[in-house]
Amino acid sequence: MYDKSDPRASLAPAKTGSMLSQTGLVAPDQAATFYDQPPQIDDETGKSWLHRGHNFLVAYSEATPGATFSRTAQADEYCVLLPKTGAEITWNGTTVSVPGYSIAFVPPGDSSLRVPEGGEVIRLFSTQNTDLAELCGNARGYDTPRSHIPAFEPWPEPAGGWKVRFYSLDVAPEEGRFGRIFRCTTLMVNVLDPFEGPRDPSKMSPHHHDDFEQGSLAIAGEFTHYLRWPWTSDMADWQEDKALEMGSPSMLVIPPPVIHTTRATGEGSNQLIDIFSPPRHDFSNKPGWVLNAEDYPMPG
Questions:
Q1: Quick one: 259 exposed, middle or buried, by C-beta within 10 A (0-12, 13-18, 19+)?
Q2: SS3 call for 8
Q3: Rounded to whole angstroms, how far apart are CA atoms 275 and 280?
Q4: Per-residue pLDDT tens over the stretch 257-296
Q5: What is the value of pTM for the model shown?
Q6: What is the CATH topology of the domain spanning 7-149+161-170+178-284?
Q7: What single DSSP character describes residue 281?
């Protein structure tokens, strides 16, 4: 259910046979407040917090000047978000300078990310990279299988072959388009436009996803995430409603088919980034919504 001013109101409704009618879907939300929890990594690169979903994980870092983050035999393509600071990304013997306020995608294999001036660095990976998945603060949160979430399958390789690709986040809002959406073979990332001040409580957007999780990464401001577990025919699925008040930086993974909506509550600028893995078909089918669609084809 979306307010009529929300671009997502134009999405096709959930198909018949929704997961809401099935049982055995008890799954907790996965929340982490990085601002009041110790980092999983605290070394010469700075401080890094890692938190996972079923198919994706987030590494949020406060990098020291000159910090280098290396990946050896990386399983698949990953994402780098640079809200302010710039970085140098090296892959296959080529180094690319990526300015701040950018999003980049790095191919599988060996690569490195150097942050000359330090600062906020966000890396997004698939959980196929088990070394990183095991470092997550909630690494044991998925020991119980989530059979209602389909197995991870990457999307087709990028047009023109593998290379480091990056895109500016300096994209003006456009009527009818939802946020600033980018995708690669493994991830879809929506860098939502900052919300100034508290969200109008009369224009909320409660909705659910049948079979995929949503990661909501807060990098500025304050939010209340509202979660409602559906009543199936099995009372074991029933849970109390939640209203999670979280500052930033923080990360919430919302399980399907939990009904959810989020309200920005901070008086200043409130910034959320939504994460999905693999990319969403419904967003991808909306003309103009995925800003780098020409580089990353959909499955045939």
A1: middle
A2: helix
A3: 10
A4: 999 999 999 999 999 999 999 999 999 999 999 999 999 9
A5: 0.94
A6: Jelly Rolls (2.60.120)
A7: H
